[in-house]
Design goal:
- The protein is mostly helical.
- It contains four helices and no strands.
- The termini are far apart.
- The relative contact order is 0.08.
Length: 55
Amino acid sequence: PNIASRLPEQHQQPHSPVTICSTLQSIESEILSYQESLPPIRFAQASKPRSKPQD
C-alpha cells in the first residue's frame, strides 16, 4: 500500500508540525496493528540462543 497516495494533503500543504504529527501517528498505528497480526517469530528466535548456552 502506498502511504503517500493515501495522504494527499501533504502534497498540497507545507509540512506543518500538525500534519507531520498526524501522519506519524497514523503510520505508527498501522505498524503496530501489522506487528500484532504477526506471530512473535523474532522474539522466539532471539530467546532461543539465550536459553541454550550449549550453542
